[in-house]
Amino acid sequence: MPKHLVNDVRTALALLDDDPDFGALRDTAPAAYARLEGRAVQALRRLRDALEGAPLRYATPGDWHRAREDQQHDAQGLVLLLADTLRAQLPDAAYLVFHINDSYDTETGRDLQLHSVRAADGTVLHDFRSPLPDLDAERHRGLAFQWRDGRPPRTEGDLGTLMQQLRAAGLILDTYPEQLHLYDHKDYGCDTEQTMCMLLADSAHPEQWDLRDVFGTQLLRPYGTPLSA
């Protein structure tokens, strides 16, 4: 077995055993933790496939369910990295906001149109008329390293394509909180029935708390204010 695969399997076992070192990493560097967790999951998949031998010609319901879980797990790591990157680019970022374009269907994900990045109080921080700021080369080296070629998404096209692919895969976004809409604003007003979001920080909250109970890991909610008792 290749050494790197052995190391990744050991990491997976440590994660399953709630190793305190990894617990600390999850709290202090969630993006790095998500990357490590993703590698561990991929290693276990490769080990599983090797033990099971050649794949079956026809997928079973169990195979399909497992593939869906793998996909959702990978998506959670990706959106956590995306949220941490957007907060590094815009420190007060709390919501990535989208509109729904009814002229397209959800199967392609093209119905999802990027709208703005907003602060916790709904203030618009960025509207994608220009690229997002660059990451600081020294302070955010770890985040940049996790993106292909060290280049995180900066434009509407970069982010829009990424999120459309996740939506086309059947993953779910939160509804943007109604009380934060900018009604009648000539540039930033929103149709409350057609506005969705992803929570980028613990200062953000969803319109519907119970979506996590309904959709589980299918819901793309990397952060969010703890639910009050």
Notes on the protein architecture:
Helices cover 43% and strands 10% of the residues. The protein starts with a helix and ends in a 14-residue tail after the last helix. It is built from seven helices and five strands; from the N terminus they run ααααβββααββα. The protein has 229 residues and is α+β, with helices and mostly antiparallel strands. α1 (3-16) packs across α3. Strands 3-2-1-5-4 form a five-stranded antiparallel beta sheet, covered by helices on one side. It has helices spanning 3-16, 20-28, 30-52, 61-89, 141-145, 156-168, 211-215; strands at residues 95-100, 112-118, 124-126, 174-175, 195-199.
What does this entry show, briefly?
The protein is an alpha+beta fold and 229 residues long. The chain contains seven helices and five strands. The longest helix has 29 residues, at 61-89.
Would you tell me the structural class of the helices and strands? alpha+beta
Poorly predicted parts: none
Strand content: 5-15%
What spatial order of strands do you see in the largest sheet? Answer: 3-2-1-5-4
Query: Averaging pLDDT over every residue, what do you get?
Result: 78
Order of helices and strands: HHHHEEEHHEEH
Helix content class: 40-55%
Rg over CA atoms, rounded to whole Å, is: 19 Å
Total beta strand runs: 5
Alpha carbon gap, first and last residue? 49 Å
| Shape verdict | globular
Largest sheet: 5 strands, antiparallel
Q: Helix count?
A: 7
